[in-house]
């Protein structure tokens, strides 16, 4: 059943005679159900001519070129109506035929510039799907986004003013919100075609995005008059190449007076000579996150690459020893490493290890069994004797918050080998075993002052336990608040940490070795080996 009524006849005739395509006519007539938009273009035009049969001869004159023989938009059953992520940035259109050429025989719509004509064709959808399949991404669903040129908002506004004026003569009204959004109509037609061609559902929450960006150089200056009338709407932004964004244009159209618009822009808009160009077809996958715990057994290995003034100081790092394998396996473009605190280059991390997480950016492979993750963990562990990884697992972005929450709240346990300048006996250190919840004030250590702000931080030494070694050495086991600078607590950092082991014992003390024995953050969950 044809979707237009007698009430729509005058508007449909007006729009068709000024160069508007059948699907845009549906939009202006408020047709908000899917099926009519999916009809083949030739059938749509024939049905529209039948509907306007009293003006049929006139119509043939005003649509001089016949519909394209190569337009074969299939009459699909109602398909997937998933959430869409179509960004309205205007519109555009290019007809991609088997050989990749652009077909210019079609009368190009003066409102959508062909978006609802040729870019709805199965040939174009196939072209996009070929790019998707060649991209090498793993996906089980997708979100499809389109970026249209912003001048299409101007053209739609001009056509609306024309229709509004004509309807006013019949005491009828048409609000801008009564027009079906171009993105909606495009979604209704293309989503089922994409889903059918790729064999996966369209899902607005999918991490895999296929995006198409259109441009229309011929009409790029359509928006420029708006800047002169509404300069406040067009302010340069660092991340935008042009001030004429869709949002800026929409803001100006909401602000401009209708009479000012009519003086500056033709209503109806002129028919274009050329169709749009496709600037890019891109595929991207949202980041995936891998977490685990690492042990560091080397006293000559930084946590992250140690580069000063562009010169690498040490050949590797914990971050690189782990990430190199993950980047390769997930086929990711890049990564971001984070952990629950960090140890110095000469400090070992023992016990259950330190929690860490990697964000893998734009991964091409994302589906792994638990056995494959175990094998990946083993591969990392076999590649170096400087580190070991445990509890490797896929996690969500939200779960990483648990690791960061624990950084300041949780406790950490250390073991330190301490030297004293004065000879000591066991009784000289026994009193430290009885010290509980000692509050210390630490000025930012001199060794990190170049990268941390100057501040005094209060920290708590929860407990200490000593083991006598000889008259100049003893081992100290400490349980402290996270964020405590242990080396400075031992030697005092020229009086910047008070009290300290040296002041408590009335000696000059220094630290020879330090190990992290445990990081008490219950994340990520322990896995059975």
Walk me through the structure.
This protein is α+β, with helices and mostly antiparallel strands and 529 residues long. The protein contains 17 helices and 15 strands. The strands form 3 sheets. Strands 4, 7, 8, 9, 10, 11, 12, 13, 14 and 15 form a 10-stranded mixed β-sheet that branches. Strands 1-2-3 form a 3-stranded mixed β-sheet, covered by helices on one side.
Keywords for this entry:
529 residues, alpha+beta, 10-stranded mixed sheet, 3-stranded mixed sheet, 15 strands, metal-binding
List the helices and strands and how they pair.
Blueprint: H1 9-17, H2 22-28, H3 35-38, H4 41-51, H5 56-62, H6 122-134, E1 143-147, H7 151-169, H8 182-198, E2 208-215, H9 224-229, H10 246-255, H11 258-264, E3 277-285, E4 288-296, E5 307-308, E6 311-312, H12 318-330, E7 334-339, E8 348-361, H13 370-383, E9 387-395, H14 400-409, E10 411-420, H15 427-430, E11 436-443, E12 456-470, E13 473-481, H16 486-491, E14 497-498, H17 501-505, E15 509-519
Parallel strand pairs: 1-2, 8-15
Antiparallel strand pairs: 2-3, 4-8, 4-9, 5-6, 7-8, 10-13, 10-15, 11-12, 11-14, 12-13
């Amino acid at each position: 059943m044809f979707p237009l009524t007698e009430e729509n006849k005058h508007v449909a005739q007006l729009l068709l005679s000024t160069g508007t395509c059948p699907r845009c006519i549906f939009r202006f007539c408020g047709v908000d159900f899917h099926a009519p938009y999916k009809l083949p273009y030739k059938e749509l035009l024939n049905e529209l001519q039948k509907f306007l049969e009293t003006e049929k001869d006139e119509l043939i004159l005003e649509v001089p070129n016949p519909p394209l023989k190569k337009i074969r938009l299939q009459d699909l059953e109602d398909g997937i109506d998933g959430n869409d992520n179509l960004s309205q940035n205007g519109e555009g259109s290019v007809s991609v035929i088997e050989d990749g050429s652009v077909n210019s025989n079609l009368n190009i719509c003066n409102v959508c510039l062909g978006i609802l004509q040729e870019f709805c064709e199965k040939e174009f959808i196939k072209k996009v799907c070929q790019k998707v399949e060649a991209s090498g991404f793993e996906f089980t669903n997708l979100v499809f986004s389109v970026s249209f040129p912003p001048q299409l908002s101007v053209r739609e506004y001009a056509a609306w003013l024309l229709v509004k004026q004509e309807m006013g003569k019949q005491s009828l009204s048409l609000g801008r919100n009564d027009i079906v959004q171009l993105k909606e109509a495009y979604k209704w037609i293309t989503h089922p075609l994409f889903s059918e061609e790729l064999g996966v559902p369209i899902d607005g929450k999918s991490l895999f995005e296929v995006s198409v960006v259109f441009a229309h150089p011929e009409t790029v200056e359509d928006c420029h008059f708006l800047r002169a009338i509404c300069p406040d709407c067009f302010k340069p932004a660092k991340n935008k190449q042009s001030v004429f964004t869709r949002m800026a244009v929409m803001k100006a159209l909401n602000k401009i007076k209708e009479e000012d618009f009519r003086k500056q822009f033709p209503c109806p808009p002129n028919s274009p000579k050329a169709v749009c160009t496709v600037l890019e077809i891109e595929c991207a996958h949202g980041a995936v996150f891998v977490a685990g715990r690492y042990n560091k057994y080397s006293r000559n290995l930084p946590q992250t690459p140690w580069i000063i003034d562009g010169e690498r100081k040490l050949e590797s790092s914990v971050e690189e020893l782990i990430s190199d394998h993950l980047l390769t396996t997930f086929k990711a473009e890049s990564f971001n490493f984070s952990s629950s605190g960090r140890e110095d280059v000469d400090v070992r991390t023992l016990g259950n290890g330190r929690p860490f997480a990697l964000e893998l950016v734009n991964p091409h492979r994302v589906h792994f069994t638990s056995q494959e993750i175990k094998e990946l963990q083993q591969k990392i562990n076999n590649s170096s004797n400087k580190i070991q990884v445990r509890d490797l697992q896929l996690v969500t972005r939200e779960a990483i918050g648990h690791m960061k929450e624990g950084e300041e709240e949780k406790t950490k346990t250390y073991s330190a080998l301490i030297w004293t300048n004065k000879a000591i006996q066991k009784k000289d250190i026994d009193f430290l075993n009885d010290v509980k919840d000692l509050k210390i004030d630490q000025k930012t250590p001199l060794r990190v002052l170049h990268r941390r702000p100057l501040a005094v931080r209060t920290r708590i030494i929860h407990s200490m336990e000593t083991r006598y070694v000889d008259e100049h050495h003893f081992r100290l086991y400490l349980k402290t608040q996270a964020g405590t600078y242990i080396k400075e607590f031992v030697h005092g950092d020229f009086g910047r940490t008070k009290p300290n082991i040296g002041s408590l014992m009335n000696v000059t003390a220094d630290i020879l070795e330090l190990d992290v024995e445990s990081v008490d953050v219950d994340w990520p969950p322990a896995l059975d080996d």
